[in-house]
Amino acid sequence: MTVKPLIILALGLLPDPAGAQTAPAEVEVGQSLPAWSEGELDIHHINTGRGEASFLVFPDGTNLLVDASGKTVEKPPFSLPTRPDASRPPGEWVARYVRHVLPPSRRTIDYALLSHFHGDHMGAIVEDSPPAGEGDYRLSGITEIAEHLPIGKIIDRGWPDYAYPKPLKSRTVTNYRQFVEWQTKNRGLEVERFEPGRADQIQLLRRPDAYPQFEVRNLMANGIVWTGLGSETRALFPPIESLSPGDYPIENKLSIAVRVTYGKFDYFTGGDLSAAGDETLSSADAWKNVETPAAQASGPVDAMKANHHGSWDANSAAFLGILRPRVIVVTSRAEGHPAVNAYRRMTSQATWPGPRDVFVTNVSPATFRTTYGIEDAASTQGHVVIRVAPGGASYRVFVLDDADEERRVKAAFGPYVSN
Ligand SMILES: [Zn+2]
After folding, report:
1. C-alpha of residue 255 to centroid of ligand 1, in Å
2. Which residues contact 1 (CB under 8 A, 6 or more apart)?
3. Residue 21: per-residue pLDDT
């Protein structure tokens, strides 16, 4: 089948192009997305069907991998099929995507950020996870990606002791620590603990002086949130010593959140942060709502990754009403993503008035039948790429075909004006 190319003259759709510094490149539906160019900020939400992985290319070419997708332990809700297909593990698909995006001269991941220690974000180690080529650890997710591409620095929420709120001893984390130790000794990997409040832990490495309007702000991790003043933080959780182990914050609520700013453009990503823990959340458990403080620290954004794959317990009305995103990307990986209630909150004018487009990387047949209105989403299958124009005044969204590695543009949206 031949795909008829449709030339989209993006500039013609821009209501007020005065803020844009350069005319956007032409993008043809049915063709590959033109490569990133200096000055652009690209945010790729890579769909493997098996977890979450985003890849950001900053205006000077510095890059950041946020989470690593990876094999998950099979339990309901069931994972979706691997994309493009099951011939390779998800981590390898992510590595191949990243290698395709990076210019041949720069095939290194500068920063890898692990939002939290769950298999769908870092790669679960299961019975049949293969051994590394060298090093005493096994491959899945982040460890698999490192087998294909060198990583400069990993930032996670647990280094160096991995002991909050209690020692982390799962097979997956134990394997990850062996990987970190080996890579540090033998490959020059650097590892740091994520520090909430800072705006200089993740920075432009090549031409920082050329882009003073660019910033990655560390908003939250381990229940410590930026106050908005300097790099000050405050604690959301009661002292751990005052809690019984059964009441410790669960892993999702310890997720790392960051805000990426480029001129007027802002983007929020917060792993699997959630509002509720269960339906009986009482006022005494109010500290378990980590979403609203994360949104307050961020302030309104243009675009966001939905928390927790659009699950029922995340993306509360309060959270969304503060962020008020024009573009929401739901990185679904299982049946029930996005959940009917979460999707309604994302789309309802009662949550906040105004237009918004919701892009979903995957929707299972079961979810199509139960998440009412999902057919009106801007997309329901494919990688979602946000491309911010030089200077940050406007951005576009492209949906790429995830059926193969041609990654042809299925649809193009925008330009949107950054606010
Ligand atoms: Zn997750």
Report:
1. 10
2. none
3. 45
**219-228, 236-245, 376-385: segment of lowest average pLDDT:** 236-245
Conformation bin of residue 15: beta by default, left when phi > 0, alpha when psi is -120 to 50: alpha
| Rounded distance from Cα 299 to ligand 1 centre (Å) | 23
355 Cα: distance to centroid of ligand 1 (angstroms): 27
Please enumerate in sequence order all residues whose Cβ is within 8 A of that of 299, keeping only pairs 6 or more positions apart, or say none: 266, 322
In contact, 316 and 346? CB cutoff 8 Å:
no
Neighbour-count burial of 286, counting CB atoms closer than 10 A to its CB (0-12 exposed, 13-18 middle, 19+ buried) = exposed
Domain residue extents for the chain? 51-417
Task: Provide the 3-class DSSP secondary structure of residue 305.
Answer: strand
Write out pLDDT tens, residues 144-161. Answer: 999 999 999 999 999 999
352 and 321 in contact (C-beta within 8 Å)?
yes
Kindly give the distance from the C-alpha atom of residue 130 to the centroid of ligand 1, in angstroms, as a whole number: 22
Least Cα distance to 418 among 213, 243, 244 occurs for 213
CB 219 within 8 A of CB 181: no
Alpha-carbon gap, residue 303 to 121, rounded angstroms: 20
Q: What is the C-alpha to C-alpha distance for residues 63 and 408, in angstroms, rounded to an integer?
A: 22
pTM for the structure as a whole: 0.93
CATH homologous superfamily for 51-417? Ribonuclease Z/Hydroxyacylglutathione hydrolase-like (3.60.15.10)
User: 8: CA distance to ligand 1 center in Å?
Assistant: 35
372 CA → ligand 1 middle, Å: 22
Residue 121 alpha carbon to ligand 1 centre in Å: 6
How far is ligand 1, taken at its centre, from the CA of residue 310, in Å?
10
273 CA from centroid of ligand 1 (Å)? 9
Distance 413 CA to ligand 1 centre (A): 27
Element (H, E) at 414: strand 409-417
Region for 356 from its dihedrals, namely left if φ exceeds 0, alpha if ψ lies in -120 to 50, beta otherwise? beta
**pLDDT computed for residue 80 by the predictor:** 87
